[in-house]
Amino acid sequence: MDFSQFSHIFWSVPTNEVPAADWWIDVLRAFVRILVPVFFVLLLVPPLVWFERRLLGFMQQRQGPNRVGPEGIVQTIADGVKLLMKEDIIPSNVDRTLYVLAPIIMLIPALVTAGVLPWHPSLVWGAGAPNVDIGVLYLLAWSSLAVYGVVMAGWASNNKYALLGGLRSSAQMISYELGMGIAVVTVVLISGALSVRDIVFDQSAYGWIKDAAHTTAHHAAYTWGIVHKPWLGFLNPWHVAQFFPMGFVAAFIYVVAMLAETNRSPFDLPEAETELVAGYHTEYTSMKFAMFFMGEYANMVVVSAIAATLFFGGWTTPIAQLDQWDNTAVGWIIPAAMISAKIGLGLYFFVWIRATLPRIRYDMLMSFGWKGIFPIALGNLFCVAVSLTAGYWAGLAVWIVLAVGALLIVANLDSTKRFTEKTRRRSVLGLYASAQPFQMPLVKTSNGAPPVDGRTAAEELVK
Amino acid sequence: MSLWDDIKALAEEVKAPLTGLSITDSYSRQPRVTIQYPDVRRPLSRRARWRHVLNRYENGLEKCIGCSLCAGACPANAIYVKAAENTAENRVSPGERYAEQYEINMIRCIFCGYCEEACPTQAIQLKDIYELADDERKDLIYTKEMMLTPAPEEE
To answer: Distance (Å, rounded) from C-alpha A429 to C-alpha A299?
Structure first.
């Protein structure tokens, strides 16, 4: 066949079946397809680092990097070049194999995980691996592998601080993986599908409905006896809004767990610089450190992509009716733009949280994971199960009973009382409320003394 | 505390991070307090004491008369003045003498401004020229030519 014929077959998108005209065409397509998520994640890392530093700067009322390139966007490239030019030190007493392997293991799961996340409903070009039937299991399996990079780095470095960082990280990731897994299982239960593609279809009310009718997701939905209708009449039935409080709670738990899984603030104890120098990557320099850095940020991208896909509708638009695009150029841009925008919002959230919340203490982290996130996720899952078998109102009733019961018990716990009294949030909140942005002092008095508030002084006298 | 108070305390704990988020969000839209230093400079106080400047009269004659009072007042012994006689052909300052050589060691100078106070003709002044860093010790001995204000153009 000549080239035009080939390209016609290669790029053509039959709506709902994988054409198997020639097996090697499928293989070629798979190679091209798999490049997209890998390059998306890798190329997003430098702008993301710039974005984080700049936004953190804005939130702290300073400039952030703005010298290299327009608005400083090339700053990260300059930093990367600097890192690569540095000497690559391997300390003498490290376990060389693990030491070299650790940064690789940190980066690879992030890139591999992105493979099953769809940016378009198409079965041919819709994702790196569009039709993985156990996509959710694949996500969970690979995202739990990232911890090995951290632990191996901590162990291989032969440094007590690195080891402490690695150990903290393993305990933390395993603890929060439970909550995260249960939140994901909630989604699987709602959508009745393990394929990520079907989970996204399940969140679209009208779009591609003629294709979706054939997918397992909707078969499953019909077996549950539910078909998701648009929320408030016009919003797509994203899982965050499904079974109202329950989908939201699951999404919230996933978001918290995703902060912990990526070792991001406020759960960045593995690299707590006030305690552990730099945590697990203390001994790393140059290219290897750059790979840890890239792995962390690639993980951020992937994890927010997963959150967007599982809870916030993937490639679907918020308005249900807008989803009825066709197999045209626009029909390809809209879904890709939607998923990209959602990933971007997720990343903004990451940075926002980092600018706001201080790092929590380690025992608080553990008790929050095991006594907070985990039981809430479990109870929430139970309520979703009740909703699916006995109807939404039954599930909601169980949810309310559980929530009120849990609130009464928790509010009465001695440890809770001690915590709330100790933190004295009331007075701190008052300080926050009265906080003013810093300004250069412009005090002008005749004798150079600071102005005295006469009223306060008088009140002092009265007392 | 009653149960209701406990619940309220718990609710405040839950609300606190959200309050924090709203605060950081509002700050991200406020004007930034830092400035782009080499491009933008904050004005200094009028009494800022940085590098010395040797002044001239409006007709171009130097104010310094080479009296060495500044050198005497200097607590760090940073000033060296060598005076020379004014002649009819070579009139540099209005008085009898002028400073032929005037050097300040900027490594020793403590910017106290006593030289400025001691000067009877207000020839030496500490101005707000504050970028004095250098990587050569010799270059930090400022000579008369470096500190003298430029002569007005002769017409």
So the answer is: 34
- Return the CATH number at B99: 3.30.70.3270
The C-alpha angle with vertex B104 and arms to B102 and B107, in degrees rounded to 5, equals: 165
The pLDDT value given to residue A210: 46
Half-sphere exposure of B41 (CA within 13 A, CB side): 8
Which pLDDT belongs to residue A264?
A: 84
Q: Is residue A47 within 8 Å of residue A76, measured between CB atoms?
A: yes
Residue B80 lies in a domain: yes
Facing residue for A63 by CB, picked from B7, B23, B34: B34
Instruction: Specify the number of domains making up chain B.
Output: 1
Extract the tokens encoding A87: 């000497």
Using the 8-state DSSP alphabet, how is residue B43 labeled?
A: P
Q: Tell me, what's the pLDDT at A456?
A: 43
Contact A131, A195 (CB under 8 A): yes
Structural domain of B91: 52-154
Listing DSSP states for A445-463 in one string gives: -TTSPPPP-HHHHHHHHH-
Mutate to test the interface with A, among B28, B30, B34, B44 (most CBs of A within 10 A): B28
Helix axes A23-59, A3-11, angle to 10 degrees: 60
Q: What angle, rounded to 10 degrees, do the helices at A96-113 and A146-156 form?
A: 160
Tens of pLDDT, residue by residue over A47-99, are 999 999 999 999 988 888 888 888 888 888 898 888 888 888 888 888 888 88
Measure the CA angle with vertex A132, ends A7 and A258; round to 5°: 115
How far apart (Å, rounded) are the C-alpha atoms in residues A363 and A366? 5
Mutual orientation of helices A414-423 and A425-434 as an angle, nearest 10°? 30
What tokens appear for A47 in the block? 């702008």
Instruction: For residues A108 and A42, give the distance between their C-alpha atoms in angstroms, rounded to a whole number.
Output: 11
pLDDT at A361: 83
User: Residue B72: pLDDT band by 50, 70, 90 thresholds?
Assistant: very high
Residue of chain A with shortest Cα separation from B17: A357
CB contact B44 to A (< 8 Å): no
Contact A348, A236 (CB under 8 A): no
> Which residue in the set B7, B12, B34 is minimally distant from A62, CB to CB?
B34
Residue B120 is assigned to a structural domain of this protein:
yes
Residue A229's alpha-carbon distances to A23, A115, A175, A206, in angstroms, are: 39, 29, 35, 9
pTM over 0.95: no
- pLDDT for the residue numbered A284: 86
pLDDT beneath 70, residues of chain A: 1, 6, 8-22, 206-229, 324-329, 420-433, 436-463
